[in-house]
Known about the structure:
The complex is a heterodimer.
Chain A: H1 3-14, H2 18-21, E1 37-38, E2 49-55, E3 60-64, E4 67-73, E5 77-83, E6 87-97, E7 106-112, E8 121-122, E9 128-129, E10 133-139, E11 145-148, E12 151-152, E13 161-167, E14 171-180, E15 190-196, E16 202-206, E17 212-213, E18 217-224, E19 228-232, E20 235-236, E21 244-251, E22 255-265, E23 273-281, E24 289-290, E25 296-297, E26 300-306, E27 311-315, E28 318-324, E29 328-334, E30 339-349, E31 358-364, E32 370-373, E33 381-382, E34 385-393, E35 400-405, E36 415-417, E37 423-429, E38 441-449, E39 455-464, E40 477-485, E41 488-495, E42 498-504, E43 513-517, E44 530-533, E45 539-546, E46 557-564, E47 574-577, E48 583-590, E49 596-602, E50 605-612, E51 615-616, E52 620-621, E53 632-637, E54 643-649, E55 661-668, E56 672-673, E57 678-679, E58 695-699, E59 709-715, E60 718-723, E61 728-730, E62 744-748, E63 755-761, E64 773-779, E65 788-791, E66 799-801, E67 804-808, E68 814-818
Parallel strand pairs in A: 9-15, 17-23, 25-31, 33-39
Antiparallel strand pairs in A: 1-2, 2-5, 3-4, 3-6, 6-7, 8-10, 10-13, 11-12, 11-14, 14-15, 16-18, 18-21, 19-20, 19-22, 22-23, 24-26, 26-29, 27-28, 27-30, 30-31, 32-34, 34-37, 35-36, 35-38, 38-39, 40-41, 41-42, 42-43, 44-45, 45-46, 46-47, 48-49, 49-50, 50-51, 50-52, 53-54, 54-55, 55-56, 55-57, 58-59, ...
Chain B: E1 8-10, E2 23-27, E3 36-38, E4 42-46, E5 50-60, E6 69-74, E7 77-81, E8 83-84, E9 90-97, E10 100-106
Antiparallel strand pairs in B: 1-5, 2-4, 3-10, 4-10, 5-9, 6-7, 6-10, 8-9
Amino acid sequence: MSxxxxxxxxxxxxxxxLVTALGCEPEPSIPGPTVPRIADxxxxxxxxxxxxxxxxxxxxxxxxxxxxxxxLSEAVTFEVEVELDEGGNVFLVSVADARDQRSGAATVSIxxxxxxxxxxxxxxxxPRTVRAQIAVTGNKPADAVLYMxxxxxxxxxxxxSFDLVHALGLGDNAVRISTMDALANExxxxxxxxxxxxxxxxxxxxxxxxxxxxxxxxxxxxxxxPGVTVLVNGAALADDVAGGAWTTDVPLTVGANTIVVGxxxxxxxxxxxxxxxxxxxHPIPDPPALDAAPARAGATVTITGTKPANTAIERxxxxxxxxxxxxxxxxxxxxxxxxTNTLSYVAVSEYDQRSSAVTVDVIRDTTxxxxxxxxxxxGSLVGxxxxxxxxxxxxxxxxxxxxxxxxxxxxxxxxxVSLSGGAFDDILDLAARAxxxxxxxxxxxxxxxxxxxxxxxxxxxxxxxxxxxxxxEAAGTTLALASTGDPFVLAWVAIETSVVVLTQDExxxxxxxxxxxxxxxxxxxxxxxxxxxxxxxxxxxxxxEASARTSSATTARGVLAVPFDxxxxxxxxxxxxxxxxxxxxxxxxLLSTGEAAVASVVADVVRVSLSSAGAFAAPxxxxxxxxxxxxxxxxxAGPDDVLTVAWIETSARDGVLDDADVVARRFTPxxxxxxxxxxxxxxxGAFVDAGADTLALTALPASSPADVAVVxxxxxxxxxxxxxGGAALAVSDTARISPAGDALALSLAPDPAGVLAAVLDGxxxxxxxxxxxxxxxxxxxxxxxxxxxxxxxxxxxxxxxAGHVGFVDSRGVIVRALLETP
Amino acid sequence: MPGPDGVLLTFPAGALxxxxxxxxxxxxxxxxxxxxxxxxxFYRIGPDVPLDAPAxxxxxxxxxxxxxxxxxxxxxGFVELAVVSGPxxxxxxxxxxxxxxxxxxxxx
Lengths: 822, 108
């Protein structure tokens, strides 16, 4: 082929206009067209439609795979689009001329590869992170190129896995990866989204680091963002997808507890943020348990109890038991004030935590009970049965009062008595007490003891007359008293049907009484006895008795006498005047010879009977014809045994009809009465009431300048003394003497010049209250001393012996008094 | 000039003052769009040279998308290009700058 032909042929293939310009002519007709020429096409390709371009002879149609795809045309170039099937495609491209002669076929093979590679697998990526970059790892087809967010990742080329680093911006980040083959077939996209935070959305709000709490569980709380895992001491809390508040309880041990709280985004465990806090658990200790405390105590009380280990004990805010492991404690607590003291205890832990308080009330009682015995008991004469009475009081209701008589050295000697309203009144029976000496003084002890052993003891002495002391009753008891001088006293007591002699052989407190009943069983209705005693202690007792031996009728009183010796031993009864009828008053006086003169009042006649060798002579009347209405009689022997007999009569001897008078008559034994009856109260006027008044009489010693006798009366609230032939002398004023029921006793005082006058006084002299007592005065007949209170006891009729007054108190106890020289 | 998947880039006369070979190629669909929803593949057309006159780029869609437009990657992200008339079934735009293109619509 020439060069021009060659050019023409090329132009023809290119179907350019230059073909004509160059004068290229078609080849002369030859059988069949030539094979078209096909420009190169990409194969393999991922484009389903591919354009085949080429040249062909003019006046030919283009036939592909036997199908005419371009009609006969003059065009020498062609361009036809073919659709590929996936995989290999073979196109036989030929041309056909007008004579349908076909050229040979040009073969075009094209492979369609539109299948994308397998998508990469992406390892899990945490959806949230604080990291600035994350690892993107996974697997992929080894022959595929990995793309991430639009960029090829050549580092992963040729590998079946990838390990990339992807930088994150704050906020939402997309991680999109795919694989792409050489034909730009791209796999499905695998996308993950990551939200980057500049800080972990997490807080630990409570408790604060270093906080102290008293419960054994710490409640931790805070907030967290979505997807944040919270770990407390390495243990993850339950997921909270939405985030928000979180809380959890952590058990605590006593003391410091370290708590590590971590947080990270889910899947970001390696990026944990941790906070370490210390929470102190200082538990409140249990309160102490107090043992039963005494209800009462002295200045201190010992409180014991149990407490938690490792605690101290405070009482009233003051530590009283130091911190220690012991579980028991003891506290000697002072009690500040008398009365109820409330003690408050708390346990204090080593961490200064205080328990609740427990309290105990203790009564401080340092006051001994008060105790008094009935004052009447002191010095009283008692038998085997002692009435011990008194009052006791104490704030302690457990007060115990005990009494004992005698030595009482041991507690067992004391016997409790019953208390009622603070008073006690028990009878002690001493019958079995052989240790108590009859007739001696003994101490009655009483003691009041409270529950704290605070004790008050009192004691009084009583005179024991255990064997035969009759029960002296105030009613119907009459006392006569005589004395040989201090300390010897004889007392005669008439108790309706009997007469008892009490001999006191020694003065109190050593002495006691010896008792003897001197009347006999035949005695009835004993009348007021009188006694007369000599200096040696012998004498007579005279009394009235209503009995058959004294009268034919037992209702009439005769007069009897009992002589007794110096030892008090009584001789048999002597009937003085059995025929005298109804004796209303009796008195007896001793003569210097030892004989007795008994004065009596029988049928308004005052008579005197004189004894001789134990027998009484017939009575001699000493009253005269004027005498009438006699109510009492007294007889006393003066110097030379001259008797003075005084009596009360209502004869109106003084010319005054409405009052009684005291009259007297001297009687000389062996001679008889004086010639005249003396009107003693002639100058005193209305000083005597018959019946209601009493009469007292004493003889004065021979040396007395005044007279041989003194008469005393009680009248109209006054006591009076009269010396025979002398003026009246007031013993008391009107305020001191009760109008009725009082009595008067006269005796010689130890001072021979004096007269002792004792008055049973119910007036104000004893302190204003109208309680009766005994008041005495002393002095001579012209001048008496100031009144002396002898006794504040209510008394029966007093009587007197020389230098003494005596009386029976309200309990029937004989009391005597010796008025000392002022 | 045709591109893969029926992409067509048409230069007007005078768009270039010299002959250049352009290439239209698929780009990875892993490119992240901000507030856009891709409706086509990404196509990278290069070289990225300024054109004297805007060329028309048509990107065919498999499904009609009336709200779609062609977006071109710029320095601050993808920018929307005004839609111009073009082949049926494609979204066309005029662009004087070549680079990375995609048909997208705003994310709902």
